[in-house]
Inverse folding.
């Protein structure tokens, strides 16, 4: 009885969570310029517009990809030494550094966005895409920081001792033991940052100063004019990317453990 | 090559002293066991030999060369870890070849050497397996092969059998000993299992609370334990508290004789130790150190029988071989004697091990 | 020997150390510059003042804060427009956060009782929705809740509207602001706003509650069952107390996150019920363009968020000490 009730509850939750997404995705099939549900004159023409023919969207998409890839890479590169120092030394100083790096993610993004807007206007980076990349890298630094730290905690210290007794210096141990063993966690952190950067627009709105736009920013900017089915195509593309990325993380990494599940239980 | 020596080694962790002033020589080609209860400092000592820890004081030398401050990766003493510490992201062959690969040995050569070592530990054809596919015993063989790949001057093993089940453990002890003898490599094994130490070692170092209690061959350690602690830790023993009196020992009103008069002043507290198999049971025994006892419990172990006795000396356990005709039952009264040459005498005060040591085997 | 096992390998010396120091210094510089300076700028500029038609100027005046709390024309007149916006920010955030946590808790508990594989699948699903941009989610709910599509249309077409009118519930809905004379309406309404905001953070709630619930020893609940506790009693006496702290922490984090929500508010909330976040946007980059005032509002929002976080930490420490 309780079990049936539980399954019903979970199914209901899944339906509610999926509902708006399904509706947006199906709206992408609309033939006209207006969003209808159920879609009218179903067609795939909007996909062509979004990915190939409409310069507004193709440019936004390429910006999105550049910012997401660039910022995720940068975030991982910054997170590694911070996480490594924290794991290696466990010092107060490195803990503070890690805490500092997590601040932007923990506070309302609109405030960080406003601050970055001022910041880049002083440095002259406002409206340039590299300022956008750096901003997102800092905003999402917390994600690879957490996943890499989790990965490092999983490294057996006896492995490091074993490597040392076989002649490995710290550098060699890092390259041959630590890096390969934490690779799934590094990749997970990269993907988390990538996907969230892909979808973020508030911070990007303040940093871009309308000089360039990403896909979500483009949608945000044209919000006042109403939705078009082409925007729904973007939603389809984004949710697909998310599902592929997180499935990959689940397939090659331990997703439950990354999310903080107890390792001992299955 | 040259012998490994420790001189005045000490290790402090803050206030706690893990290893206290240890001076030892490890002869070439011998297998030495560091034996002691957990927390006695034996693993810390091994880690200092490996270079994984820096001693607070003292020196480590190899053939007269001081290596106290030489880090582990420059000593390259092969070491087998308690958990084996095999790298799960590498294959068996790459694990074994690790030391050679990082030293810049050509790939083919390193792989060939790894395969030779895998043959040596009877894992021919396992090179391409992943670590996760191995059983506990196989993992241990890989760990041994891996530690030997760099042809170390000294071979170190930290509780190498603790991850194996009881049956496999005994097989591996013999196998490891045979391998060590064949290679003639100076080997140090840390263990808390006295049977393991006695099976494998040329020489046993018994440690307690960071200090060496006794160093000697298994026979010496077993038959002539230097302290009451060693007597209790190695094998089983009956402990009796007594007082020295004119070269004899008074225990519970009984005067016990020793082969030679005891070297203790009359009136000083002493501890007498007698192994269970040293106690003789039955009628017609010699008159020396002979008393009567009552059987309180009989524990049949198959080849031998333990007879628990209530006597004027206190509770004693005697071991009887099972083929003896007379079967004792609870409540029987028996004569027993403690032959003088089966008795060992120690100063009385620090009684380190309670009577439960009998059951601690 | 456990002591020995905890101590790492012997410290490595020179070149690595020197490089480490350089990298360390560099990271500190980057972190301070990029993680703290933007917030510092917001604080500094919040004391600046607006120059008509030319942006703003450095200054040290409290005019922006005065304007926020008592209005620009104080003391002649007092307006609480901006305080009102802060109130709506808090109200939406609290209600939506609590709603999300309350519904996510049983879901997460049930999820953690499933197999590891099933959990991984749920997590993929949740992470995908979690990362989906606010613009898409608002788009979806907008289609569902719009007056000429989605639910209102469905209600009218299926006769639910007529049924509601017959039973008298329609007037109740009108009183709640969820219906116009002809049909039910959800735009604009507090209901739609809170629903969307809650939806927005719901996957976060699950992800944040997941660690605590998945580490909950199932034998605890089983032990309670063997002592005769009914499922509801088990939940109340065993599970809830065990996750009290994560529950509070999760609610707080969602609250802080929701303080900055923007798109959902502009689409679903009545303009008279807009929030500080919307006002910040209007002032910094939108129509009114008063960057110092926007900065001042950001500071107030940050202080509010910080105050709640500190308060939460206090409370949890207190209850931890008492436990």
């Amino acid at each position: 009885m309780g079990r049936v009730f539980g399954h019903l509850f979970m199914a209901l939750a899944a339906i509610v969570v999926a509902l708006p997404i399904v509706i947006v995705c199906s709206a992408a099939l609309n033939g006209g310029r207006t969003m209808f549900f159920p879609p009218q004159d179903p067609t795939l023409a909007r996909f062509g517009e979004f990915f190939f023919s409409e310069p507004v969207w193709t440019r936004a998409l390429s910006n999105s990809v550049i910012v997401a890839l660039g910022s995720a890479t940068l975030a991982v590169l910054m997170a590694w030494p911070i996480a490594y120092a924290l794991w290696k030394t466990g010092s107060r100083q490195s803990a503070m550094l890690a805490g500092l790096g997590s601040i932007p993610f923990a506070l309302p993004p609109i405030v960080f966005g406003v601050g970055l807007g001022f910041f880049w206007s002083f440095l002259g980076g406002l409206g340039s895409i590299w300022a956008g990349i750096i901003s997102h890298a800092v905003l999402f630094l917390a994600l690879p920081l957490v996943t890499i730290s989790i990965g490092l905690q999983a490294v057996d210290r006896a492995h490091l001792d074993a490597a040392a007794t076989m002649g490995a210096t710290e550098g060699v141990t890092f390259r041959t033991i630590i890096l390969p063993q934490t690779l799934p966690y590094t990749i997970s952190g990269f993907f988390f940052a990538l996907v969230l950067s892909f979808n973020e627009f508030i911070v990007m709105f303040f940093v871009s100063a309308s000089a360039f736009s990403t896909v979500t920013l483009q949608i945000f900017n044209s919000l006042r004019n109403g939705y078009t089915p082409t925007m729904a195509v973007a939603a389809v593309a984004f949710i697909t990317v998310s599902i592929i990325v997180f499935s990959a993380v689940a397939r090659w990494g331990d997703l439950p453990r990354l999310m903080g599940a107890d390792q001992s239980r299955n | 090559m040259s012998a490994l020596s420790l001189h005045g080694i000490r290790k402090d962790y803050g206030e706690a002293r893990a290893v206290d002033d240890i001076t030892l020589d490890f002869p070439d080609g011998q297998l030495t066991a560091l034996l002691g209860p957990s927390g006695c400092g034996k693993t810390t000592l091994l880690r200092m030999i490996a270079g994984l820890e820096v001693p607070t004081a003292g020196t480590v030398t190899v053939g007269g060369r001081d290596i106290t401050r030489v880090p582990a990766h420059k000593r390259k003493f092969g070491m087998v870890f308690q958990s084996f510490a095999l790298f799960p992201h590498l294959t068996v062959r790459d694990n074994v070849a690790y030391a050679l690969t990082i030293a810049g040995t050509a790939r083919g050569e390193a792989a060939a050497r790894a395969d030779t070592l895998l043959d040596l530990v009877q894992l021919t054809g396992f090179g391409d397996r992943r670590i996760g596919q191995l059983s506990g015993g196989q993992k241990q063989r890989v760990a041994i092969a891996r530690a030997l790949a760099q042809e170390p001057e000294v071979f170190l093993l930290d509780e190498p059998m603790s991850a194996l089940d009881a049956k496999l453990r005994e097989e591996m002890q013999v196998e490891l000993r045979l391998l060590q003898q064949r290679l003639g490599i100076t080997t140090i094994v840390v263990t808390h299992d006295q049977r393991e130490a006695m099976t494998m070692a040329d020489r046993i170092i018994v440690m307690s609370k960071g200090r060496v209690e006794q160093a000697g061959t298994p026979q010496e350690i077993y038959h002539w334990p230097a302290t009451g602690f060693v007597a209790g830790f190695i094998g089983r023993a009956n402990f009796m508290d007594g007082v020295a009196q004119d070269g004899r020992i008074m225990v519970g009103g009984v005067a016990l004789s020793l082969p030679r008069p005891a070297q203790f002043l009359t009136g000083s507290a002493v501890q007498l130790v007698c192994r269970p198999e040293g106690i003789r049971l039955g009628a017609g025994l010699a008159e020396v150190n002979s008393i009567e006892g009552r059987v309180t419990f009989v524990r049949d172990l198959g080849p031998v029988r333990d007879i628990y006795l209530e006597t004027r000396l206190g509770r004693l356990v005697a071991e009887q071989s099972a083929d003896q005709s007379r079967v004792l039952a609870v409540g029987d009264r028996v004569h027993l004697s403690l032959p003088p040459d089966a008795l060992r005498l120690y100063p009385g005060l620090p009684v380190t091990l309670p009577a439960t040591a009998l059951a601690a085997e | 020997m456990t002591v020995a096992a905890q101590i790492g390998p012997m410290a490595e010396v020179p070149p690595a150390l020197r490089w480490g120091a350089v990298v360390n210094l560099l990271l500190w510089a980057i972190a301070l510059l990029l993680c703290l300076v933007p917030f510092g700028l917001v604080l500094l500029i919040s004391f600046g003042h607006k120059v008509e038609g030319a942006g703003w100027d450095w200054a040290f005046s409290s005019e922006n804060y005065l304007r926020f709390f008592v209005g620009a024309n104080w003391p002649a007149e007092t307006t609480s427009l901006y305080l009102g916006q802060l109130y709506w920010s808090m109200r939406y955030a609290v209600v939506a956060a609590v709603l999300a946590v309350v519904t996510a808790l049983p879901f997460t508990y049930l999820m953690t009782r499933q197999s590891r594989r099933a959990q991984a699948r749920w997590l993929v699903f949740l992470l995908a929705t979690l990362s989906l941009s606010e613009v898409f989610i608002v788009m979806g709910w907008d289609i569902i809740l719009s007056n000429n599509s989605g639910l209102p249309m469905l209600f009218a077409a299926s006769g639910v509207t007529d049924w509601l009118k017959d039973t008298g519930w329609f007037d109740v809905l009108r009183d709640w602001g969820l219906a116009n004379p002809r049909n039910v309406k959800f735009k604009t309404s507090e209901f739609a706003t809170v629903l969307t905001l809650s939806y927005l953070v719901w996957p976060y709630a699950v992800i944040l509650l997941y660690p605590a619930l998945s580490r909950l020893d199932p034998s605890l609940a089983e032990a309670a069952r063997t002592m005769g506790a009914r499922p509801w009693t088990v939940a109340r006496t065993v599970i809830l107390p065990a996750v009290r702290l994560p529950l509070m922490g999760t609610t707080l984090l969602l609250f802080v996150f929701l303080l900055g929500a923007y798109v959902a508010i502009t689409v679903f909330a009545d303009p008279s019920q807009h929030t500080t976040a919307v006002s910040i946007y209007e002032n910094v980059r939108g129509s009114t363009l008063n960057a110092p005032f926007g900065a001042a509002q950001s500071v107030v929002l940050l202080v509010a968020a910080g105050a709640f976080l500190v308060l939460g930490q206090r409370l949890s420490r207190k209850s931890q000490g008492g436990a």
